[in-house]
Amino acid sequence: MKTILKLEGFALFVLSIFLFSQLPYPWWVYPLLFFVPDISMIGYARDTRVGAVIYNLVHHYGVSIGLYLLGFFLGSPVIQLIGVILFGHSSLDRALGYGLKYSDSFQNTHLGKIGRE
After folding, report:
1. How far is the C-alpha of 55 from the C-alpha of 39, rounded, in Å?
2. CB of 111 within 8 A of CB of 98?
3. Mean pLDDT in runs of 10 for the chain (117 residues)?
4. Which DSSP symbol is given to 100?
5. What distance in Å separates the CA atoms of residue 19 and residue 91, rounded to the nearest whole number?
6. Residues 85 and 37 sit within 8 Å (Cβ to Cβ)
7. Cα dihedral sign for 117, 5, 73, 77?
8. Is 80 left (phi over 0), alpha (psi -120 to 50) or beta?
9. Are 51 and 80 in contact (CB under 8 A)?
10. Among the residues of the chain, which ranges form H helices?
11. Whole-angstrom Cα distance, residue 108 to residue 98?
12. What is the rounded CA–CA span in Å between residue 82 and residue 71?
């Protein structure tokens, strides 16, 4: 099952690249902004509960898809861009085995434990 979820994440990452290609931005913008969502880990400076809430909000597919669609319906490429970046980043995270976080530990994700045992 874990392999299927990783393949699904990779397929969604490819979809994000396609969606980005439909926006009016040069290609270098995608890799430039790709790791910006990881700033959400700053919440872990407070504690694991706050860190998990902020991280999961930024890495949630529903948030990214909602922003993309909001941008589409409002005719705002900037909002679409934010949605695509969040979606692509979260998808590659899932493909690499990094899931949404539980509040007890950064290493405890919905896809299993990450890092060293």
Report:
1. 9
2. yes
3. 89 98 98 96 92 95 98 98 98 91 84 70
4. P
5. 13
6. yes
7. positive
8. alpha
9. no
10. 2-21, 29-33, 48-58, 61-74, 77-95
11. 9
12. 9
CA 20-14-77 angle, to 5 degrees, is 15
Give every CB contact of residue 28 below 8 A, 6+ residues apart in sequence: none
- Say what the pTM is: 0.92
| CB neighbours of residue 66 within 10 Å | 14
Distances (CA, A) of 18 to 13, 23, 27, 41, 47: 9, 9, 11, 27, 37
Token code pair at residue 3? 């392999």
DSSP state of 101: E
Q: How many residues does this entry show for the chain?
A: 117
CB 97 within 8 A of CB 2: yes
Q: Tokens 């099952």 correspond to what residue? A: 1
Residue 84 is encoded by which pair of tokens? 């695509």
Tell me, what's the pLDDT at 99?
Answer: 85
The residue with tokens 């290493």 is: 107
